[in-house]
């Protein structure tokens, strides 16, 4: 008998979480574990290593290869109070300012106080950060919103790649079981709704193929972001909101999804550019690069005390405003004054990316434009990473810990992954200390029962681009009641088409819905998270952080210093309620 908490036994014959699930074949094989970690970025691998070190049988599931997530694309670094004169209190103050009044101060305090030690543990695990010339001290950079140099970086502008390398090597050295090229589909639960594992589809690689299951009383979602919901993003192709969509189908709450940070400076590749765009790290501005318009004028000067190093939402808005004023779609980042040596030593990755696209930043300004970058919201958790579904945890970009509020402070994301992954592992270890977990055996599922849940109509793979176009036009950097209404209508039409196709197929031997498969599942997940994002953005009738409403251009603390918590009902409608805040009792509503 497997247990997860006092008096909560998991019976054999678990099913997909009641309510809603993706249309998929029944699992044909299974694995038993104590913990399954979904995702292989800094959050997922840190959680996995700590769980394994505590003696928990841990399985890591990842959608591509172990090192293919968003972490390896992180250029800037990890923010922590590591330098002389810097303190966690100063880091906290900068984070709260960037979060525009919606940060959970307790979560931020946990981040900044536990962060320095977490970074040193990462170094002990094998990560090598750049050091100051002639010193063993970590070289610290500065980025937007930070009043001090506190960004540890590696390889100049390849911090994520170094962090990923160190953690992947540690995972392999520890002998953790990993399942690569596997898309997680849905949560498994027992009769009481307690987590008991996940279903997943392995894409023709490794020991298992097709749909299977990992049975475990603890599931850690670390699936990264959802940048692919927009046409242009800095996120890799795997960032399709899978973790948020899974959690919603399982009955978990999500929060703050309207706050999608658009990185101000992605390399502009033309009006038709789609998918992952090259990122020009904020660290370039931290080292003194200037944002200029076509006439070479530094338009950030006078707009904020930090000029080019203002928080990202302010910089992104300024870029879009200036572009609109001048009838263009991009601005420029000018760092010609760096010289060849600095470009080659400090920013070799960015230099190579620019040159690969016909731009030489040593001799010419770089064309830049904002692109979807980081989701400040996600699956709502407490300070130990626990979601509203028992046994389901979340950390990293998929989670809403309360750290980021309405706008993430630059380079806080890798630190958040470290700190809250460690907190999750500690909670799992403490829960296990009072319980026993029976040894499991691999093998096919023993006649798994049909899930007592509703199969979600799958979106056709080709509809993915339609979702992206709708979201870019209606819910991108610039938003209004009209644009969001058009986005909601467009997304609703896609959902109805999928439902009608399912209904037609049910009564016909000829008509077919979209066949289950990775592309259809991803498109369906994108539609799910897009609907939630738009629903929250429609309700937030103010401008705050990285949520910019043209029809409500001012921040309104008197009315909107609150959060929306959204769940998915069995009929696929969205239920929305607000948090209890001073002067504002919770309200509720549904979006069909």
Looking at the chains present, what oligomeric state does this protein adopt? single chain
Main β-sheet description = 6 strands, mixed
Tally of DSSP helical segments: 14
- By CATH reckoning, the class of the largest domain would read Alpha Beta
Walk across the major sheet and give the strand order: 25-23-17-27-28-29
Shape: globular
What helical percentage do the residues reach?
25-40%
Radius of gyration, in Å, reads 23 Å
Query: How far apart are the termini?
Result: 41 Å
Strand content: 15-25%
**Number of E strands:** 29
CATH superfamily of the largest domain: FAD/NAD(P)-binding domain
- Which fold does the CATH topology of the largest domain refer to? FAD/NAD(P)-binding domain
Q: How many individual domains?
A: 4
Structural class estimated from helices and strands: alpha/beta
Estimate the mean pLDDT confidence: 87
Sequence stretches where pLDDT stays below 50 over 5 or more residues: 1-15, 436-452, 508-512, 581-585
């Amino acid at each position: 008998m497997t247990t997860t908490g006092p008096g909560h036994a998991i019976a054999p014959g678990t099913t997909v979480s009641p309510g809603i699930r993706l249309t998929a074949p029944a699992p044909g094989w299974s694995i038993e574990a104590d913990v399954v970690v979904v995702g292989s970025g800094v959050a997922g691998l840190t959680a996995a290593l700590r769980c394994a070190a505590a003696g928990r049988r841990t399985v890591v599931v990842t959608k591509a290869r172990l090192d293919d997530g968003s972490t390896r694309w992180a250029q800037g670094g990890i923010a922590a109070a590591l330098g002389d004169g810097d303190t966690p209190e100063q880091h906290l103050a900068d984070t709260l300012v960037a979060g525009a009044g919606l940060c959970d101060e307790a979560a931020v305090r946990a981040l900044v106080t536990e962060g320095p030690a977490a970074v040193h543990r990462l170094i002990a695990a094998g990560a090598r950060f750049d050091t100051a010339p002639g010193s063993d001290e970590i070289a610290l950079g500065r980025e937007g919103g930070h009043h001090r140099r506190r960004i540890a970086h590696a390889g100049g502008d390849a911090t994520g790649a170094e962090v990923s390398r160190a953690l992947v090597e540690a995972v392999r050295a520890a002998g953790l079981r990993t399942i690569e090229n596997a898309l997680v589909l849905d949560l498994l639960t027992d009769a009481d709704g307690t987590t008991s594992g996940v279903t997943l589809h392995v894409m023709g690689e490794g020991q298992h193929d097709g749909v299977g299951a990992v049975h475990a009383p603890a599931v850690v979602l670390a699936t990264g972001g959802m940048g692919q919901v927009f046409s242009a993003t800095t996120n890799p192709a795997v960032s399709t909101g899978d973790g948020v969509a899974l959690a919603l189908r399982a009955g978990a709450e999500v929060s703050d999804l309207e706050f999608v940070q658009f990185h101000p400076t992605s390399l502009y590749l033309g009006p038709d550019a789609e998918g992952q765009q090259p990122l020009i790290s904020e660290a370039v501005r931290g080292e003194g690069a200037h944002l200029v318009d076509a006439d070479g004028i530094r338009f950030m000067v006078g707009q904020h005390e930090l000029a080019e190093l203002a928080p990202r939402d302010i910089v992104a808005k300024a870029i879009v405003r200036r572009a609109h004023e001048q009838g263009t779609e991009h601005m420029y980042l000018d760092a010609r004054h760096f010289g060849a040596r600095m470009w080659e030593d400090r920013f070799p990755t960015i230099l190579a990316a620019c040159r690969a696209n016909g731009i030489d930043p040593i001799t010419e300004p770089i064309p830049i434009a904002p692109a979807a970058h980081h989701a400040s919201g996600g699956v709502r958790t407490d300070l130990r990473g626990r979601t509203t579904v028992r046994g389901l945890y979340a950390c990293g970009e998929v989670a809403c810990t309360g750290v980021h509020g309405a706008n993430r402070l630059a380079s806080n994301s890798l630190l958040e992954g470290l700190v809250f992954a460690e907190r999750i592992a500690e909670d799992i270890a403490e829960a296990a200390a009072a319980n026993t977990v029976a040894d499991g055996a691999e093998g096919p599922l023993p006649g798994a029962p049909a899930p007592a849940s509703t199969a979600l109509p799958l979106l056709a793979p080709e509809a993915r681009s339609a979702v992206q176009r709708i979201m870019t036009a209606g819910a991108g950097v610039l938003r209004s009641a009209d644009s969001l209404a058009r986005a909601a209508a467009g997304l609703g039409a896609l959902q109805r088409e999928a439902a009608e196709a399912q209904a037609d197929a049910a009564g016909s031997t000829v008509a077919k819905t979209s066949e289950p498969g990775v592309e259809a599942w991803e498109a369906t997940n994108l539609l799910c998270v897009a609907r939630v994002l738009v629903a929250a953005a429609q309700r937030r009738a103010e401008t705050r952080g990285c949520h910019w409403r043209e029809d409500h251009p001012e921040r309104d603390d008197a009315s909107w210093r609150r959060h929306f918590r959204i769940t998915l009902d069995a009929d696929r409608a969205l239920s929305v309620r607000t948090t209890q805040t001073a002067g504002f009792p919770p309200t509720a509503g549904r979006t069909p």
